[in-house]
Structures are given as C-alpha cells and as structure tokens.
C-alpha cells in the first residue's frame, strides 16, 4: 500500500527491534487520555505525516523508538533491556482516495488510515536498579513526540523531541526524572542527528548523583500541618498576580494534580501519611509524580522534572528558612 493524503504519507519502516518482546507493568507510566499501543501497530498500521510544501516525511514515532533502543544497547551492551512501553493519544483518522465517497459502515480496514499526534515511550533497564525506602527503582530512558508542535503545512525543518533518562519506581511505575537527565526540546533533522543527541544525554547522565538526591528525600518528613500548608499555598500559587508569581520558584502542577495529592495523602497504599500524620519527602515526591500521570503526554515530562525539583526545594526550606521555597511552608 502506498498513497498520499494531505499532510500524511505511508512510508515502509525496517524493523530492527522484535515486536513480540512487549513487556509492560500492570500500571502505565502515564495515563491521561492515552492508550497503550504496540510497536508493531505503529510500524505496520500507521501512516507517517509529511511536510506538505515539499512532501518530506517527518521522523516517525517508530524510528524515534527504534533509535533510542539502539542507543541504549550501544551504551549498556551487557545489561538487560526490556522492550519499549508505548502510549499514544490524539488519533488522526483518514481514508484512502478510493474510499472518499463510501459510508463509514462500508469502509474496509485497508481503506482506513491513522496516525497519532502524540506519543510517549519508555525503555527499562532492570539490571541497573536501586532500592530507596523499600521501593525498587529501575534505570529507564524514554521520550515524547508531539506533532502538534510542528508546522506540517510548511517545508521540512528541524523537528522537536523530548528525551530523558532517569528511574522508574516499580512499586507504582512513577517516573523519577531530574533536569540532568532531561532535554525538553531536542531539535533534529535526521535520525542520525537524533541518535547523537540521545547518546550525548544518556552518556553524560550521572545516575549515582540522582540516586543520592532521592535517597536524601527519605530522611526528612513533613507534618500533616506542613503538608496542608504546601497544598494550600500550591493552590494559591496558580492564582497569584504575575508579578508575585515571577519571584517564586516554578510549580507546574495544577489544582487537579494537587487535589489528587491531597486525596492520596490519606488513601494511597504505598505513599500515604504514617500513623502519626507525617509523610517523608520520598513519599511526598511519589504523590506528586503519581498525580502527574493525569497530564497529557506532551506535558508530563516537564511536570515530572518540576515535581522532583519542587520536592528538593521543600527539603531546602525545611533546612533553611531563607530558602526561596519557604513561601510554600509559611
């Protein structure tokens, strides 16, 4: 099958990663309005958008995933590497030219076309792991592609991707990502260019430094009163005048996220308050990352990184009354 639609093109893709190695946990790493999808479906059933003015193809979701897998294999040749877990959202449907005038009920499968505007994936490396506060963390890499950020009605230009390396908490499948392991906008013209950018990030990431920072979180706790103060100030933060908000540290979580955090403070099986009403910062951080699973695919990585640095900021405020984060505890 080979056909063109406005802004889309079907392009065969050579598979280099076995599709039958699909392994995913019981809980997804992100939820929102996304759904899990197989690499095989992306490669064999989805068309690939093009830049309409020159008909140049975009770098496809499957190429992005396959390249990340190859980079991980080259950097960690002796480690166990699981197959990607893939989530997609914002499906774009179409049909082949010969089916333009057919009623929907008469469409055959081969006359239907589809691609997904947004895609996120993770690749776990479970042989590199650590325990923090009784939780098993596995090294994880991944990325996000959001075609809504590209101008597909123009000529081909550098395309934008988000990539990360960090850890996944296997108790809840929450992602633990810091600034050092995250690139919020990687621009690439080709797969080779994208692979070079991923290799640079994955190779430079200092996992021990990230782990040490997370281990510190388990050593400090919030009282129920302090937790309530943070939640209340977090709600106020989103409505502050721009002049006041600009002098405070950034908080990307919304009222909806904070409501989930408040609820889980009492009800979460793994990270709720203890019998004295206190919660250590490791558990607090996991409540934040748990609430972040309701974010759209194109925003959840930025919010996940922000959740980590916000928790580090609260730790700083507990130790130093002059901290920029003290406003959230006052």
List the helices and strands and how they pair.
Layout: E1 4-5, E2 8-9, E3 35-37, H1 39-45, E4 48-51, E5 56-57, H2 61-75, E6 85-95, E7 112-132, E8 135-146, E9 159-169, E10 174-176, E11 182-188, H3 191-204, H4 207-217, E12 221-222, H5 224-237, H6 242-245, H7 255-267, E13 279-280, H8 281-291, H9 300-319
Antiparallel strand pairs: 1-2, 2-4, 3-6, 4-5, 6-7, 7-8, 8-9, 9-10, 9-11, 12-13
Helix pairs in contact: 2-3, 4-8, 5-7, 7-8, 8-9
InterPro entries: DUF3871
Protein name: DUF3871 family protein
Description:
The protein has 2 domains: 4-206, no CATH class; 218-328, no CATH class. 33% of the residues lie in helices and 25% in strands. It is built from 9 helices and 13 strands. The strands form 3 sheets. Strands 3, 6, 7, 8, 9, 10 and 11 form a 7-stranded antiparallel beta sheet that branches. It has a 4-stranded antiparallel beta sheet with strand order 1-2-4-5, with no helix packed on it. The relative contact order is 0.13.
Mean pLDDT reading: 92
What are the low-pLDDT stretches, counting only 5+ consecutive residues below 50? 1-16, 18-24
The total tally of domains equals: 2
- Total strand segments: 13
Give me some keywords for this one.
330 residues, alpha+beta, seven-stranded antiparallel sheet, four-stranded antiparallel sheet, globular, disordered N terminus
Nutshell version of this structure?
Helix content is about 35%, strand content about 25%. By secondary structure, the chain is of the alpha+beta class.
């Amino acid at each position: 099958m080979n056909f063109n639609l406005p802004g889309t093109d079907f392009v065969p893709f050579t598979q280099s990663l076995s599709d039958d190695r699909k392994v995913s946990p019981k809980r997804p790493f992100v939820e929102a309005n996304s759904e899990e999808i197989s690499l095989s479906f992306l490669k064999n059933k989805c068309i690939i958008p093009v830049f309409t003015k020159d008909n140049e193809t975009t770098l496809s979701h499957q190429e992005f995933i396959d390249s990340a897998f190859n980079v991980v294999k080259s950097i960690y040749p002796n480690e166990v590497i699981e197959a990607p877990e893939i989530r997609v959202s914002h499906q774009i449907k179409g049909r082949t030219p010969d089916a333009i005038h057919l009623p929907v009920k008469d469409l055959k499968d081969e006359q239907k076309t589809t691609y997904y505007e947004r895609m996120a994936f993770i690749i776990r490396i479970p042989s590199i792991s650590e325990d923090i506060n009784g939780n098993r963390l596995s090294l994880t890499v991944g990325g996000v592609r959001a075609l809504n950020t590209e101008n597909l009605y123009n000529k081909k230009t550098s395309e934008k991707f988000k990539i990360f390396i960090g850890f996944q908490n296997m108790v809840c499948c929450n992602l633990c990502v810091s600034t050092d392991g995250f690139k919020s906008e990687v621009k690439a013209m080709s797969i080779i260019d994208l692979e070079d950018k991923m290799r640079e990030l994955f190779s430079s990431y200092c996992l021990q430094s990230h782990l040490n920072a997370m281990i510190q979180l388990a050593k400090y706790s919030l009282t129920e009163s302090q937790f309530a103060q943070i939640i209340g100030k977090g709600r106020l933060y989103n409505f502050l005048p721009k002049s006041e908000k600009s002098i405070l540290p950034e908080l990307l979580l919304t009222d909806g996220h904070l409501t989930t955090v408040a609820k889980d403070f009492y009800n979460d099986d793994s990270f709720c308050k203890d019998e004295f009403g206190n919660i250590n910062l490791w558990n607090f951080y996991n409540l934040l990352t748990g609430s972040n699973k309701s974010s759209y695919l194109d925003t959840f990585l930025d919010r996940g990184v922000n959740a980590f640095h916000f928790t580090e900021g609260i730790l700083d405020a507990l130790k130093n009354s002059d901290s920029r984060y003290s406003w959230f505890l006052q």
